[in-house]
Amino acid sequence: MATKHEMILQHILSLEVGQKISVRQIAKVMNVSDGTAYRAIKEAENQGLVSTIERVGTIRIEKKKKENFERLTFAEVVNIIDGQVLGGRDGLHKTLSKFLIGAMQLEDMMRYTDAGSLLIVGNRVEAHYRALQTRAAVLITGGFDTEERNKQLADEKDLPIISTSYDTFTVASMINRAIYDQLIKKEIIFVGDIATPLEDTFYMRNTDKIEDWYVLNRRSTHTRFPVVDSKMRVVGMISSKDIVGQDEQISIDKVMSKKPHTVQSKTSLASASHTMVWEGIELLPVVDDSRILIGVVSRQDVLKAMQQIQRQPQVGETITDIITSNLEAAPDEENVFVSQVVPQMTNHLGTLGHGVFTALIIEASSRLLMDKRRAELSIENITVYFTKPVQIDSELRIKPTILEVGRLYAKVDVEVFDEKNLIGKGLLMAQLINR
Fold first, then answer.
1. Which range is least confidently modeled, 99-113, 139-153, 238-252, 388-402?
2. Domain named CBS: which ranges (predicted)?
3. How many domains, in total, are found in the chain?
4. I want to staple 426 with a disulfide (CB 3.0 to 4.6 A). Which of 193, 196, 325, 384 is the partner?
5. How would you list the strands of the sheet with 327-329, edge to edge?
6. What number of CA atoms fall less than 13 Å from residue 247's CA on the CB side?
7. 359 or 277: whose pLDDT is higher?
8. Minimal CA–CA distance to 106: which of 76, 127, 136, 80?
9. Helix 299-310 vs helix 269-279: angle between axes, to the nearest 10 degrees?
């Protein structure tokens, strides 16, 4: 039988795209408390079923396909540019196919304006009207308003007409940056992308007995299971080591491991991987905000996904990508790396940033350990200090030296030189993740 939480999510899923919802409305329709309705709506937002927009409210939106992450909805544009919706609120869930700047004659502008696009333009009310007629949304810059007929047309066609106080160039830059950020996020794998869903998950109730574990073990061939209560909330984990030598009639809740580690769908793969490595966990329950079980993720799932990440094409560069791509092996000396200090790596004073310096030390150490031990590292402790500032365009020589290395841990000392001058050092302790 479905829980109240699941029933509310199914109800939200059945609503028409563009329909407004509220906590009070959901609580009344589904006959649940405001708290239960609120948690379900937040989960729906995490799943991309609804979007909450300031001064508009929460609306049902079309769930984006993963291949369209580089697209933005008009609702997201409103948030990005801190805009005010003048009309066409029911179309905020729609996705814009492209945006264009209306800095030309009206007829020329209309040749490039088509359905699904967003026209960014100033106080040109006729352009607003003509764009809406071609089924394009309108973003008015400079804080201007528009005519009532344009607002009415926007409502009729469910096409947003938005106003912002920013100028045209700033708005275009903000939207372009948001699309670029989405391209980077496209590469990030979350637990929800690889988890086994609830319908395929084997789990036990806290009222089950140990004999039930043996039955489930034979049916699934698994040895670890999440344990849930009557409301499907995760309350423990049970594995073969917990039941060894125990009477088969003993209740599961008497021998299970309580307060287990859990993750959510929006937990990054990197975070889940770190938890599994450091805690020695083979299986993590995936839960919602109320700790209700929605699936599981195994160490094997995580390892496969991490291998897949390495095969993904690079779409957008993060600051870390810029730093690491600028680090190369020195041609004249073994186990030494060189890096050019580019503008993105500097602080407001024009010198090498402290965080960038730390990232270079970690990356150089990581490459050395990968070469010598075929192992990746997970930092446990790092101490870093500068002896002098590093100017832009300097060429750094980074020399990591392994002081100690074992099966699980490594200690690395790193010296950083600008030409022949020592400009900083680092000492790090790390856990090794063998490949």
1. 99-113
2. 195-254, 256-314
3. 4
4. 384
5. 327-329, 337-340, 395-405, 409-418, 421-434, 375-386
6. 4
7. 359
8. 127
9. 130
Residue 224 lies in a domain: yes
Q: Judge if 136 and 96 occupy the same domain.
A: yes
Q: Single out the residue of 52, 58, 321, 91 nearest to residue 183, CA to CA.
A: 321
Final residue belonging to a domain, choices 185, 211, 226: 185
**395: amino acid identity, one letter:** E
Higher pLDDT, 262 or 277: 262
Domain hosting 429: range is 319-434
Please say which residue of 21, 41, 60 terminates a domain: 60
CATH at 353? 3.10.129.10
Mark whether 90 and 10 lie in a shared domain.
no
Q: Of the ranges 271-275, 315-319, 335-339, which one carries the lowest mean pLDDT score?
A: 315-319
Write out pLDDT tens, residues 120-136. 999 999 999 999 999 99
Q: Higher pLDDT residue, 137 or 378?
A: 137
Give the integer Cα–Cα distance in Å for 301 and 26: 36
User: Which whole number is the average pLDDT over 208-224?
Assistant: 93
Tell me which amino acid residue 57 is: G
Task: Check whether 157 has a pLDDT greater than 80.
Answer: yes
> Do both 42 and 18 map to the same domain?
yes
Beta carbons within 8 Å of 214's beta carbon, 6+ residues apart? 248
Q: What is the pLDDT of residue 186?
A: 54
Q: Are residues 219 and 169 in the same domain?
A: no
Quickly count helices (H) and strands (E) in the chain: 15, 24
**CATH assignment at residue 168:** 3.40.1390.20
